[in-house]
Amino acid sequence: MIMRKHGPVLALGALLLAGLVAPFADRSTTPGFYVEVLLGGLMAGVLYSLVALGFALIFKASGVFNFAQGAMVLFAALAVARLGEQMPLWAAIPLGMAIMVALAWLIERLVLRPLVNQEAIALFMATLGVTFFLDGFGQTIWGSDIYKIELGIAKEPVMVLQSVFQGGILVNAEDFIAAVVAAALVAGLALFFQMTPTGRALRAVADDHQAAQSIGIPLNRMWVIVWSVAGIVALVAGVIWGAKLGVQFSLSQVALKALPVVILGGFTSIAGAIVGGLIIGVGEKMAEVFLGPILVKAFDLAGGGIENWFAYMLALLFLLVRPEGLFGEKHIDRV
Questions:
Q1: CA separation for the pair 154, 313 (Å, rounded)
Q2: Which end of the chain is more exposed for a tag (fewer CB within 10 A), N or C?
């Protein structure tokens, strides 16, 4: 019972503990380097959680996987980047939020409302259509070049904890601030779903559309709210990733890294999106450092690229062992 109840927490704790203990097995590298890798993985994991949160929000409200979340990240980042060329960033971001809310209203009115109570596959195909529309429409309006978003944060890494670890630990100030902002947003949304009447209504809609409508919960309004929140989450993720990588078409592909996160944490769980993101972030960084040299030596490989596939292989293993994810709800069909 203890293992079943606390399994997800123990799994995360074991992974983090392995990251802290493993360095000392190899004295050829300073412990500070591995702590640096661990911190980098945690900060990347928070950003993955932020993108995965958009997937989880839509799935909780409509019961369908929103394939358009990556396109929403790209569209929001393009909007802020191009608006930022005409006005200060502090004005471009709120205007970008208004654009994403208006986009959410249009998607609900033109796409989702006609498909109320339809099969989940119909809604999934609708979000697939929205994906290609946003990819093309966003580039038609905002352009298809590579754009910059300057947040005014120093990009040079800072050396910290020099008195604790030999050689110190390099921390990217931009990544750290982005992780703090993302963590605050994730925590705020988790509280929103748990503590507010609107959040409870959204959970009721997620459990059963027809039952929620029968007790007076306006389904269309709930969908507008959740798509608006997902749009704002996409904007924050787009601004953060755009500032790191530049706003370009490939930015929508970064959002695909959130797929293993929601598989790992569970499609219906906000907490799962957080924990899954941290596991994926730490796991892929540690795999690049520890697993990479082993594979190169054992199979005479060129090396590198483990971060590109490690998360998906981990998600595949979870699908085989625990398809509902760490925090997902187990469905039992009685025949």
A1: 35
A2: C
Tell me which residue has tokens 């654009």.
99
The conformation of residue 112, written as its DSSP 8-state character, comes to I
Strand partners, 215: none
Helix (H, G, I), strand (E, B) or coil at 31: helix
Distance CA 75, CA 104 (A): 12
What are 266's two structure tokens?
A: 């569970």
pLDDT for res 95: 92
Residue 66 near residue 58 (C-beta atoms within 8 A): yes
Over residues 130-136, mean pLDDT: 86
Over range 220-230, report the average pLDDT.
81
DSSP-derived secondary structure for 59-81? HHHHSS--TTHHHHHHHHHHHHH
Q: What's the rounded Cα separation, in Å, for the pair 105 and 223?
A: 9
Give residues with Cβ within 8 angstroms of 147, minimum separation 6. 78, 81, 82, 85, 242, 246, 247, 248
| Assigned token pair, 216 | 């007076």
Rounded to whole angstroms, how far apart are CA atoms 256 and 212? 31
For residue 164, the SS3 value is: coil
User: Cα(125)–Cα(111) distance, rounded to whole angstroms?
Assistant: 11
Tell me how far apart the alpha carbons of residues 224 and 243 are, in angstroms, rounded to a whole number: 28
What does the block give as tokens for 196?
């507010």
Helix, strand, or coil here: 157? strand
Q: Cα separation of 66 and 258, whole Å?
A: 12
pLDDT tens-place string over residues 300-333: 666 667 777 888 888 888 888 887 777 766 655 5
Handedness of CA 315, 122, 238, 139 (dihedral sign): positive
Q: Which residues contact 58 (CB under 8 A, 6 or more apart)?
A: 64, 65, 66, 69, 127, 226, 227, 230
Q: How far apart are CA 218 and CA 229, in angstroms?
A: 17
Dihedral (Cα; 278, 279, 285, 291), 10-degree rounding: 170
Contacts of 220 (CB under 8 A, 6+ apart): 108, 112, 113, 116
pTM above 0.85, yes or no: no
